[in-house]
UniProtKB/TrEMBL annotation:
Its job: Catalyzes the conversion of long-chain fatty acids to their active form acyl-CoAs for both synthesis of cellular lipids, and degradation via beta-oxidation.
Protein name: Long-chain-fatty-acid--CoA ligase
Family: Belongs to the ATP-dependent AMP-binding enzyme family.
Gene name in the database record: ga10123
Cofactor: Mg(2+)
Length: 635
């Protein structure tokens, strides 16, 4: 099969490993676009600053950064800064940073929600070769102080309402931190505490003036210079500082440009907050957002009356059938697009032509549904912080890639490495499976101050992702498991838990599910976040009363959810048998007891990462008493 994969070019053969080491499958590269290991050279493009500088030179009067003002509680129109206006402000901010004694190789933290000041601060860092260190309170308790100290941050730009959080890191962070700049104003109480600790604090407007008329020469910046230290949330332990170079970012930007040009896309604009006001052409979202859009559309169809529902379903089936036969989405049902599906597109602003999902797996049924009804390309991507985000992305008008993350993007090489202890063989001629390994200029340079962790994941130039993939016949990659997330039950059955969660997650009445198994027990337990609207509809039809939390406690509701999960498990049994670790895993291992939690897994309780990955140790700790009760009830 491996030799027949379209969309890919094999650049290295498979390698049998000696002495019991894992064997590796062939190395592949994207067939579309540039086949080189690096993008073609662009004159004057050596660093991230050059990307911005060249954009300003090309389109100085185009709008770049906008903010929607809130007046009397109501959102108004967007006000914009042009590329040239942003550039002029960046130069002033850069001069102010330099006047504080921070120069090339220095560390600048940025803490707050997305806003123009965030981007301007980052570009000022890029201009002067200063390491940009994003700060996320979603990394967990104590993470801000950890990152400030670990990265030795000297100056921090902070959203006004986040300043109090930074002050909580005193005095620990003051060993390195000397200057704080508010995105807005500074209140007297904060100013007093900052100055008591020997630091300086400025409002945004005051800081802009700090550099005065002094001209600071921009230092020479090279491709191999570090641009940013991006701390990953991870699921255990302290955050890891991922060192990303100018070369990595330039390469991934070039790869995206190459991909879009080969997908017949034109210039695209980044999505900003209000899609109704801005009418974006590209909609980037995490699966949770797309799941809610899908659920909302399902509810509208169900509540639209018999005729509208019938028309929608006929239109959907007709267009979906044509797309599965190979028709492009814009040609599959032009009449139904105008009569039925244009309303869906209008709900997304009316101009969306590309919806890109990333950060976590998107359910196949949601992806397929949105591909049909949104009248746009719906693509799923895969990457990690360590690979500069984008490494794989599915291709437009390829329904065979549903449920996959597509082939590698240009300038990235990928291969699978066998994981014998889990039964995954990268050299299988029928179904190559193994740990996804990535190579190329998009890779990070290592973990800051953690050479030990760097050596664990970077071996002979290959980054080991920890994710288990399966090459598909068309050259796309399907994520089927996580290398470490495996349970062995008391009767010796192995369970690839993420695969089960992906399968059970396709149950319509389930928003999210966490499955847990104990090697001293013979079955699994699960905590489920039910779909609120779906469960409330069921309750109304079955005489169960009370608010959503009360319904989740009802025994009949638990039996209903368990029945739906069991139904999904039986329907997907062939898939479970194909992708789980050993063929012995049958329905006994799918025996579940469930707990319904009306509160979704969230970052506030430290149960998920900012990219919505489950923090399994934290979930176990949080639900330990619930798990104990479920196992007791089974006995």
């Amino acid at each position: 099969m491996a030799g027949s994969m379209k969309h890919l070019v094999q650049v290295e053969p498979a390698k049998e490993a000696a002495d019991g080491a894992p064997s590796a499958g062939p190395t592949y590269r994207c067939a579309a676009g540039g086949l080189g290991a690096a993008p073609p050279a662009v004159p004057g493009l050596e660093c991230c600053w050059d990307i911005f500088r060249l954009s300003v030179e090309k389109s100085p009067d185009n709008n770049m950064l906008g903010r929607r003002e809130i007046v009397d509680g109501k959102a108004g129109k967007y006000t914009w800064m042009t590329y040239k206006e942003v550039y002029d402000t960046v130069i002033k901010i850069g001069a102010a940073i330099r006047s504080c004694g921070v120069g090339k190789g220095g560390r600048c933290g940025i803490y707050g929600a997305n806003c123009p000041e965030w981007v301007i601060s980052m570009q000022a860092c890029n201009a002067h070769g200063i390491y940009c260190v994003p700060l996320y309170d979603t990394l967990g308790a104590g993470a801000i102080e950890f990152v400030l100290c670990h990265a030795e941050v000297q100056i921090a730009f902070v959203e006004e309402k986040k300043i109090a959080e930074v002050l909580k890191t005193f005095p620990g962070s003051t060993k390195f931190l000397k200057t704080i700049v508010s995105f807005g104003k500074v209140n007297p109480e904060h100013k007093e505490k900052v100055e008591e600790n020997g630091l300086s604090i400025y409002s945004w407007e005051d800081f802009i003036k700090l550099g005065g008329e002094e001209q600071f020469e921009l230092p020479l910046k090279e491709k191999d210079d570090i641009c940013t230290i991006m701390y990953t949330s991870g699921t255990t332990g302290d955050p890891k500082g991922v060192l990303i170079t100018n070369k990595s970012i330039i390469t991934i930007v070039s790869a995206v440009d190459e991909f879009l040009r080969n997908s017949n896309e034109q210039d695209v604009k980044l999505l900003v907050e209000d899609i109704g006001e801005l009418k974006p052409t590209v909609f980037c979202a995490v699966p949770r957002v797309l799941d809610r859009i899908y659920g909302g559309l399902q509810d509208k169809v169900s509540g639209g009356g018999f005729l509208k529902k019938t028309l929608f379903n006929v239109a959907y089936k007709y267009k979906q059938g044509n797309m599965m036969k190979g028709s492009k989405h814009e040609e599959a049902a032009a009449v139904f697009d105008k009569l039925v599906f244009t309303k869906v597109k209008r709900g997304l602003g009316g101009r969306v032509r590309l919806i890109l999902s990333g950060a976590a797996p998107l359910s196949r049924h949601v992806e397929e549904y949105l591909r049909v009804v949104t009248c746009s390309h719906v693509l799923q991507g895969y990457g990690l912080t360590e690979t500069c985000a984008g490494s794989f992305v599915s291709l437009p008008n390829n329904m065979s890639m549903l449920g996959t993350v597509g082939p590698p993007v240009p300038y990235v090489e990928a291969r699978l490495e066998s994981v014998p202890e889990m039964g995954y063989d990268a050299l299988s001629s029928e179904c190559p499976r193994g740990e996804i390994c990535i190579r190329g200029d998009t890779l990070f340079s290592g973990y800051y101050k953690r050479e030990d962790l760097t050596k664990e994941v970077l071996v002979d130039g290959w980054f080991h992702t920890g994710d288990i993939g399966e090459w598909q016949p068309d050259g796309s990659m399907k994520i089927i498991d996580r290398k470490k997330n495996i349970f062995k039950l008391s009767q010796g059955e192995y369970v690839a838990v993420e695969n089960l969660e992906n399968i059970f997650g396709q149950t319509p009445c389930v928003d999210s599910i966490w499955v847990y198994g104990n090697s001293f027990e013979s079955s699994l337990v699960a905590v489920v976040n039910p779909n609120k609207q779906g469960l409330e509809r069921w309750a109304e039809s079955n005489g169960v009363t009370g608010d959503f939390a009360s319904i989740c406690e009802d025994k009949k509701a638990k039996e209903f959810i368990l029945g739906e999960l069991t139904k999904t498990g039986k329907e997907k049994k062939a898939s479970i048998l194909r992708h789980n670790i050993y063929s012995e895993i049958m329905l006994p291992a799918l025996t579940l007891t469930v707990h319904l939690d009306p509160v979704p897994f969230d970052m506030e309780r430290d149960l998920i990462t900012p990219t919505y990955k489950k923090k399994r140790p934290q979930l176990l700790k949080h639900y330990q008493s619930v798990i104990d009760d479920m196992y007791k009830s089974m006995k």
